[in-house]
Design a protein that fits this description.
Keywords: Cell membrane, Membrane, Transmembrane, Transmembrane helix, Transport. This is Putative MFS family arabinose efflux permease. It holds the Pfam family MFS_3. It is a multi-pass membrane protein. The chain has about 550 residues and is mostly helical. The protein folds into 2 domains: about 375 residues, MFS general substrate transporter like domains (Growth Hormone, Chain: A, Up-down Bundle); about 90 residues, Alpha-Beta Plaits (2-Layer Sandwich), CATH 3.30.70.100. It is about 70% helix and about 5% strand. Strands 2-3-1-4 form a 4-stranded antiparallel β-sheet. Helix 1 runs antiparallel to helix 6, helix 5 runs antiparallel to helix 6 and helix 10 crosses helix 13. It starts with 19 loop residues before the first helix and ends in a 5-residue tail after the last helix.
């Protein structure tokens, strides 16, 4: 890990830019985002002009977010098992391919609604590969104390571009046509490809062999499912994405039907959305100091609800722009807060997978929301769709009472430096099942504290891969307690111990303090063996006729 800024003070939003690798990729990403936003304006307006279906217009947003829902979990496992740098490069290659194909298609005069959605889906596949790898790489490139600032910078940078890109897209679309917009997007995709190709960063490699994809996905899903903080953050993100995507999905219809305007106004309104997000991003540190992160995310949902209500009833471009600035602020605060919460709650060995699950479910919420609000607008009215989305956003704000977002705080993310014990048997990586037993001597006065520590240890071990964890009390010697758990193979046992963080090992220190024995408790390892095969072979031998 590269630590170019060892100063222990609390980082500002711009501190991560002191790191040359982060700065290079961040700047190139903004260039690519500028082209993507110009292309998005052109695609959305092109769809409005060639299709009379409100649903098809709303599905433009769904086309690029659906692949994130379908592929992100696989992409997260790939990011945790392969070079994140090359995963990012592959993702940007897919995005460049989609933009170039769209440019060529428009240049040849072949434009069809399903072709637009299909190429949007291809670009979404590129984002599904790139985003978990890039966000997980932030923790590889920078010190963990800089992660909140870096994630905020990622959102702020995108929204700086958002405040310029849509307006630029509207101007290009109005004066030069969609072909020029798609050509600019295709050229901008070269920037991140060049930056990723030129830069390298150190990543702490695992001494263990690469996991199989199915196992990696299973372990990532299990860890996420057993992490209360991550589950709460992902649930909030999914619900927020479902409701808040209405702002962007229905905005072309607002411009066309309510404001009676064209692509320039559409670009200006998207720029207002981006400007609001930019201001919120630069004020994020101040806002976190005056209120909790959970309340901040709830207020952000209320801001987006206010935006939807304003858009439902206004016919003024100025009012719509101010409303969208408020919605953009709520958008950035929510996604930044949830992203950082997931990152800080995830150890390095699984961060790509937890982020990918977060992206998958939030993108699934946005894809579903695009279809839902588009269907409501088509079957009822645009006003009803925006009002329904506003009501849903207010419910999302209320969900914070039962699903709070964790405070941003520095936590241990490094895996342990576990060394495999010496064995008398020559085990293969797939030998197993492995049984681990640890015995403790606990006095009656320490039983409650011991059980509390054991609950924490069970949770830590189970998240890392332990199976069938049990705790037994000896009936003849009540002070003797035995902890038992299993792993399917010897390699799974090694992975489990490499995954335990310093925070997990603190539980072991507490248990050691409660132990009354003269010798410290140690782990006894066994391998399970069945007698069924031996019985079968024996019966075969004894059933042979004598010679």
């Amino acid at each position: 890990m590269q630590h170019e800024d060892p100063h222990p003070s609390v980082p500002t939003t711009l501190v991560p830019l002191r790191n040359q690798v982060f700065r290079s990729i961040w700047i190139s990403t903004q260039i690519s985002s500028l082209g993507w936003l110009v292309q998005t304006v052109a695609i959305s307006w092109l769809m409005v002009t060639i299709s009379a279906s409100d649903l098809m217009v709303a599905l433009v947003q769904a086309a690029s977010t659906l692949p994130v829902f379908l592929l992100s979990i696989l992409a997260g496992a790939i990011a945790d098992n392969f070079s994140r740098r090359w995963v990012m490069f592959t993702g940007h290659c897919l995005i460049a391919l989609a933009s170039t194909t769209l440019m060529i298609s428009v240049g040849l005069g072949f434009v069809h609604p399903w072709l637009i959605l299909g190429l949007g889906f291809l670009a979404g596949c590129g984002f599904a590969l790139n985003d978990p790898a890039w966000h997980a790489s932030v923790g590889d490139i920078l010190h963990k104390r800089d992660i909140p600032a870096a994630v905020t910078l990622l959102s702020v940078g995108y929204n700086i571009v958002r405040s310029v890109g849509p307006a630029l897209g509207g101007v290009i679309l109005a004066f030069f046509g969609p072909l020029a917009a798609f050509a600019l997007a295709a050229l901008s995709d070269l920037a991140p490809l060049s930056a990723i190709w030129r830069t390298k960063w150190k990543v702490r490699s695992s001494p263990l062999p690469r996991e199989r994809m199915a196992t990696a996905i299973h372990d990532g899903v299990r860890f996420t499912a057993m992490s209360l903080e991550i589950r709460a953050a992902i649930a909030r993100a999914t619900l927020f994405g479902l409701a808040s995507i209405s702002i962007l999905a229905l905005l072309p219809l607002v411009v066309r039907d309510q404001l009676k305007s064209g692509p320039i106004v559409y670009g200006i309104l998207l720029a207002g959305f981006g400007m609001g997000a930019f201001i919120a991003g630069m004020s994020n540190g101040f806002l976190r100091r005056i209120t909790s992160q959970n309340r901040l995310v709830a207020f952000a949902s209320v801001a987006c609800a206010t935006c939807c209500l304003s858009l439902a009833f206004t016919s003024s471009v100025a009012v719509a722009a101010i409303s969208l600035a408020l919605g953009g602020a709520g958008w950035l605060i929510t996604w930044t807060g949830i992203d950082v919460s997931v990152q800080l709650a995830s150890p390095r060995w699984v961060v790509g997978r937890t982020l990918s699950i977060y992206y998958a479910l939030s993108a699934g919420g946005m894809a579903a929301g695009s279809w839902i609000w588009g269907s409501v607008a088509q079957n009822y009215s645009l006003t009803w769709a925006l009002m329904g989305a506003a009501g849903a956003l207010l419910l999302v704000a209320a969900v914070g009472i039962v699903l709070p977002i964790r405070p941003w705080e520095e936590s241990d993310q490094e895996s342990s430096d576990f060394r495999a014990p010496e064995l008398a048997l020559d085990l293969k990586p797939r030998s197993g099942p492995i049984v681990a037993k640890v015995e403790y001597l606990i006095s009656d006065k320490n039983i409650d504290a011991f059980l509390g520590c054991m609950r924490a240890k069970r949770h830590a071990l189970s998240r890392a891969g332990a199976r069938n964890w049990t705790l037994q009390r000896n009936l003849q010697t009540p002070s003797l307690w035995t902890e038992t758990f299993r792993t399917p193979t010897w390699m799974d046992f090694l992975r489990l111990n490499h995954r335990l963080t310093a925070a997990d090992k603190e539980v072991g220190q507490h248990l050691l303090a409660l132990h009354d024995g003269e010798l410290s408790p140690h782990t006894v390892l066994s391998i399970e063996r069945t007698t069924e095969a031996a019985r079968t072979r024996a019966s075969t031998i004894f059933s042979r006729p004598p010679r």
